[in-house]
Amino acid sequence: MTDNQNRRHQRAVRVRGFIAQRLEDYSATGVVRELYAQLQALITKLESLAAAQVAGISEARQHTDSRGSARLALRQALEAINSVARAMGVANEFLLPDRDNDNNLLHAARAFVPKCLARKTEFLAHEMPADFIEDLQADILALETAIAEHGDAVGDHIQASDAIDVTIDELDEVIDKLDAIMRPKYAGNRPVLTEWLSARHVERAPRRAGTSAPPPSGATPPTP
């Protein structure tokens, strides 16, 4: 989650704790207890989504590495075929694609397969491994699979991130409703009201090192 989302999550946790300590103050069938139940459910949901988001990001990074390895293996297979094709005098039939483009790499690799089959005897005569075509097909499949798995992992953490946004907004709505009840309820009990206001307050982002608040308007700067 973002820093702002984390601060809003911590606010919800503080509000939950405030109500839990004073649960007997509220009617057993009243709105506060209903909102409290909603708050608890939303916090649990948010924490589950946050875990899913972290797991999705981690998995996407892992699949990025796997995709890179699969890309390199396929590229090397095509380069080997292209090298032997040059020795055979048919390099123009086995042109290498541009680098850093998986789609072009896959298109070229798929085009190599039938051409390799047609010239298999010549390739074998030039010392290519007997199963070089099967290896090429396996490398194609490996990259296709890595691309799909990477896309799924990215989609998972994006979906979790979108759901976090919605859940955070729902938490804010519940806390706003509770705030409208708590202020008049504890208006005559200043210490408890102060505690409520502190619990429902979203903490500010920490100030960056080396920055300071601007002086108030009209303030005289300090003398060196």
The percentage of residues in β strands lies in: under 5%
Order of helices and strands: HHHHHH
Q: How many distinct folded domains?
A: 1
Average residue pLDDT: 89
What portion of residues is helical? over 70%
| Rg, nearest Å | 31 Å
Catalogue the unreliable spans.
216-224
Which structural class fits the helix and strand makeup?
A: mainly alpha
Tally of separate helices = 6
Count of beta strands: 0
Largest sheet: none
Q: Could you say which overall geometry the principal axes of the C-alpha atoms support?
A: rod-shaped
How far is the N terminus from the C terminus? 44 Å
How do the strands and helices of this protein lay out in sequence?
Layout: H1 3-21, H2 31-88, H3 102-118, H4 120-125, H5 132-185, H6 190-200
Helix pairs in contact: 1-2, 1-5, 1-6, 2-3, 2-5, 3-5, 5-6
Any key phrases for this structure?
single chain; 224 residues; mainly alpha; 6 helices; disordered C terminus
Description:
The chain has one domain. It has 6 helices and no strands. The chain has helices spanning 3-21, 31-88, 102-118, 120-125, 132-185, 190-200. The protein is rod-shaped, with a radius of gyration of 31 Å.
Overview in brief:
It is built from six helices and no strands.
